[in-house]
Amino acid sequence: MMCEDCFQELIYKFPTQQNFEDFENILQEKCTEGKISVLDMHKTDYLSAFDSNLYFECRTCKEVWILNTPDYAWRGFFLPVDKAIEYKKESNKLDEKRSIGCLIVLIIIAIAIIWNYLK
User: Fold this and answer.
1) Which residue among 57, 74, 78, 105 is buried most deeply as judged by most CB within 10 Å?
2) Is there a domain that residue 12 lies in?
């Protein structure tokens, strides 16, 4: 449940670094105004120290959001927890499919090289 004090739109990726920085400014303003608070997940989830997720809670509707920061080709996101989990699972599935596709291509290339070598 989203309200006017937190955010009305879901951000599945930040197209540019400038978009991310503009969003950070808006988020910082909401935190300064007391509409959003930062959650310290490191106290309950020790593995969270190894990822690039920051957790925020709207003080009005209690929605918990995850900010995943951009890193090179990965463009990050800002989503409620349930949507973030779903999005990350889908993203991982796509990564697995790409990895399998690359592996198949490498196997075909290896077979072609071996075939040419044996001729």
Assistant:
1) 78
2) no
Q: Are 69 and 76 contacting, i.e. CB atoms less than 8 angstroms apart? A: yes
| Residue 111 is assigned to a structural domain of this protein | no
What element of type H or E holds 54? strand 53-58
Residues 6+ apart with CB under 8 A from 27: 36, 56, 67, 78
Query: 77 lies in which domain range?
Result: 17-87
Give ∠ CA 65-23-69 in degrees, rounded to 5. Answer: 60
pLDDT in tens, 5-33: 888 899 999 999 999 999 999 999 999 99
pLDDT tens readout for residues 64-92: 999 999 988 889 999 999 999 889 888 87
Asked if the structure places residue 110 within a domain, the reply is: no
What DSSP string runs through 11-25? BS--SSHHHHHHHHH
- Go through 66-85 and write b for each residue having 16 or more CB atoms within 10 A of its CB, e for each that does not: bbbbbeeeebbbbbbeeebe
